[in-house]
Amino acid sequence: MNKVILMGNLTRDPEIRYTQSENSLAIARFSLAVNRRFARQGETDVDFFNCTAFGKTAEFVEKYFKQGSRMLLTGRVQNDNYTNKNGEKVYSVQIIADEIEFAERKSAADANGSGSNMGGGFPQPTNAKPADDDFMDLPPNIEDGLPFN
Length: 149
Prior knowledge:
This protein is mainly beta. Helix content is 11%, strand content 36%. The strands form 2 sheets. It has a 5-stranded mixed barrel with strand order 1-3-4-8-5. A two-stranded antiparallel ribbon has the order 6-7. It is globular. The relative contact order is 0.18.
């Protein structure tokens, strides 16, 4: 079994590309900073993972996430080993995202600019009433465009 669950913050805005085929496919690449639960003295307490999402999931990342956004990612580990032009073997690993969800409260999203009142986030519904919790309000019918059920 190859399954990874990560929760962390994007270190930069996602890079989005589209394939040149007839049925263009979105590909999002981003880096996720994940805090370690325990760290030894003198060691870093954060790990950085290179991640890739495809299709509707990539479009979801492009639309709703930016540098600093907190994300919950479920996916798998994939080796990307290759031989460089000097003939040296290069070993690398990336995370292929299968599912992505929001992982921050509304107040945190507003603070880093991805909330409902900032550009790039959710538009504020016109019939919205103040919420008693810190979670983001979703616009009506948003489920129709999300890449997961």
